[in-house]
Design brief:
Elements: H1 3-13, H2 23-32, H3 62-80
């Protein structure tokens, strides 16, 4: 697991926020209750796919656009790591 993913997981485990993760990597934490899945359904992804999910017909406000831009930036950094 990369360092950035480990830091993100540790932050979520310590109650400092939310994180997205692959079920197979966090299943033990979900089973123990240390992490919870905030909503259903699960979003199935391909090996390199990421999705920003929101209600249909809803326009993104400034905070949501900033989050989407940050996620895209982080994804590009993650893809650049060896």
């Amino acid at each position: 697991m990369s360092r950035s993913r480990n830091v993100t997981l540790q932050a979520a485990l310590s109650g400092q926020g939310v994180a997205m993760g692959r079920s197979r990597l966090i299943e033990e934490h979900l089973a123990s209750g240390r992490l919870v899945r905030p909503f259903d359904p699960l979003v199935r992804s391909l090996e390199t796919a990421y999705w920003l999910v929101m209600p249909a017909g809803r326009q993104l406000g400034r905070p949501q656009r900033a989050l989407a831009a940050w996620l895209e930036h982080e994804f590009c950094l993650d893809r650049a790591e060896p």
